[in-house]
Amino acid sequence: MRACTNPSPLRIAVSFGTLSPRLASLLVHQRAEEPQPPVRLHEVALAEQYRGLLDGRYDGGFALTNFAGSPLRARVLWQEQLAVAMPAQSPLRLFDAVPPEEAARYPLIRWQSPACEPVSSIVDALFTSRPGGVAVCSYELMAMLISSGYGIGVGVHSRMAWMHTPNILVRPLAGSEPALSTYLLEPESQRLAALDRLAQRALAF
């Protein structure tokens, strides 16, 4: 009797800011339409993602940077704007889209750099004169601090939307569309048909 063999999984490294409802929807479609090979996600820092793609630990990666000029191929899957998360009673709730100059009047919960690149650099560039605030490296800690009234946070819109609770409201940041692209990365030296099909699914919805 011949033993059953399963195809090797697609090893996908995901770096900061890419875990979003849109990625979840993509994985739902992937599992329904092409369950084999299975996709295995590895949450890693941006620098670790880069090294792992080059040394063969990962087949592909989702990132908010394209590593321009590197030996990696980058394909844009989707683009997103920034959003502001705020305590539910914040005066900023009156805006349909929060002007940056209004957001700059409130303490900003910053992203730690380099752990949260490129989001940290983009947000810091927008709010160079912001009031001082604490720095975090996770959306979970940011949500807790916002809910406790420590300040506001700015990040990727779809990811910030997950913070929407009775204590937190989320509004788009005015003038920021589109601010960030999610890329599918892979080494220039390889071309996996399974990754091509994954990219096609992402672009289809």
TrEMBL record:
Lineage of source species: Bacteria, Pseudomonadati, Pseudomonadota, Betaproteobacteria, Burkholderiales
Cellular component GO terms, alphabetical: protein-DNA complex
Protein's recorded name: LysR substrate-binding domain-containing protein
Family label: Belongs to the LysR transcriptional regulatory family.
Residues covered by the LysR substrate-binding domain: 9-199
Molecular-function GO term, any one: DNA binding
Keywords from the UniProt entry: DNA-binding, Transcription, Transcription regulation
SUPFAM superfamilies: Periplasmic binding protein-like II
InterPro entries: LysR_subst-bd
UniProt source species: Achromobacter pulmonis
Matching Pfam families: LysR_substrate
